[in-house]
Amino acid sequence: MKMYQVDAFSTQLFKGNPAAVLVLDEWLEPALMQKIALENNLSETAFVKIVQQDNDTASYEIRWFTPTVEVDFCGHATLASSFVLFEFYTEATTIQFHVRKLGVFTVHRESDGKIRMNFPVRKATRLMQYPALLNDVVDCPIKEVYQNEQAFILVCESETDVIQARPNLANIQAMAEAYAISTAITAADGDGPDVTITADSARYDYVARYFAPHKGINEDPVTGSMHTGLAPLWAEKLGKHQLLAYQASARGGELFCELKPEDHIEISGYARLYMQAEINIQQQ
Description:
This protein has 284 residues and is an alpha+beta fold. It is globular and about 50 Å long. The chain has five helices and 17 strands. It has a 17-stranded mixed sheet that branches. The chain is 19% helix and 38% strand.
């Protein structure tokens, strides 16, 4: 069976977030998909099932697995899957993914290779009262706390704090186990008195990092799904509907975000193919 590995949200190899992609005629057993994801040991392995495929219409179903669990939504593995489909499976420039709990995602590839993904917004709500343990999940000051269905969002004093923060993974895991969500930290360029703007950071509207140790991901390199909550938050703070975001992990990645009508958001990015492989999944 053919498998692809793609670096998502980057124009460079070894940057962005790597995801494995398998394109199927029929679903494998969920237990087998989970074993493949564990064997890959990437933050996500995406499985795509062909529904309809021709030059005008390309429709697919998609599922995402971390090394330990199936998740409801993954942005970077959707980008990686779209890249593989556009490159190897269809001549269409627009495809649709049918997602079990989130409806239909429409994805378009531009002439320069940028892939635009239309997702529902996952709006974050500010918490005036929040669990005290959130003050001890990173070692930097927290200005505000928000929450959406995916994560606690901790707004820090500065971009430098976000980049230099050391996560307390044990406390993050304790929070996740208690509340069944992940934890993200984010800060706007220039937001607060102690920001240091680097040459690169002047290009971005906000930066972010993301932690999910309970899902087998201590720090996710780039988390497209999280920006469906982060981008609307910063759009409101900054008074703009188009934003350029940077996820400040060791690998790093750029996300182009644009708010759309009817509580949707378009998250766009580039991808690079790293590997094509044949995997042997015959059961012994």
